[in-house]
Amino acid sequence: MDLSKIKTLIDFVGRSSISELTVTEKDLTVRIFRSQPTAGETSADLARGQQPVAGASITLGPDELPTIGQASVISVKAPVSGVLHRSSAPGEEPFVKLGDEVTDGQTLFIIEAMKVFNKIAAPRSGRIVSLTEVDGGEVETGDLLAEIA
Length: 149
Prior knowledge:
Elements: H1 3-15, E1 20-25, E2 28-34, H2 43-47, E3 54-59, E4 67-68, E5 71-72, E6 74-77, E7 82-85, E8 101-102, E9 107-113, E10 116-121, E11 126-131, E12 138-139, E13 144-148
Antiparallel strand pairs: 1-2, 2-3, 4-5, 6-13, 7-9, 7-12, 8-11, 9-10, 11-13
């Protein structure tokens, strides 16, 4: 599935009233979702211009897992270009740190692209063995964000 198709799906979810869309093509599954406002988000937050979070997560197929020796390592790459956030808000703890154990589906980063907040989730459980230093800066599609072993 190419990036333009994924961007089109994200735009579709952003404009529609659906809350989640999952599309599988070959061994790649793209899940695009719109989060509901949490208890901490109020109508006043939305009035100040804070948008409800919409996001996307990418799940790689088993044949896309690179291996090093006996241990398999998976690269987590930026699915879209935008501003990378390693925490949910400025001054908050990052979602993950180098050496952290993560679970399948756990949020690792958020990439803000065109006022859409794309949650980047762990494609599997494991330990963070490599982590980008970028926080609050631009990333491009395909940039290496983390590696999980």
